[in-house]
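On clarity, I found the account of how folds are encoded harder to follow than it need be. For illustration, here is how one protein appears when written out as sequence plus structure tokens:

:::
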Amino acid sequence: MSARDLPTRSTVTRDDLIQRLITDGAKRSDAVRMVTVIVETLSEVLMTGEGLQIRSFGGFSVVNKRSRPVRNPRTGEPIVLSARRTVTFRPSAGLRARMTAKLCCAEWRQV
């Protein structure tokens, strides 16, 4: 996906991905099915607790967080935050380099 194909808002949605596949020649029904299969597969892998690596993009991993005491910011009352699992993303070196190069070029153009 190139910068010209991205929407002007800050978040790319599922429909944006589908539209990009359609502009690349896929039928709408095929594009919807492709995006759905990818999202469902990613979700299933992460729900099992496994990590997921996509070369030249990055990796997703599941982190188990322990329960911990915190304070309610409104009342100051101490409460216990329950244990939970969360997903983290770590971009690949290539993606970080491309993002840094894009940022540097954008800053340079504004000067």
In short: Residues 71 and 78 are 4 Å apart (CA to CA). The beta strands are 52-54, 58-65, 68-71, 78-81, 84-91. The first strand starts at residue 52 and ends at 54. The chain has three helices and five strands.
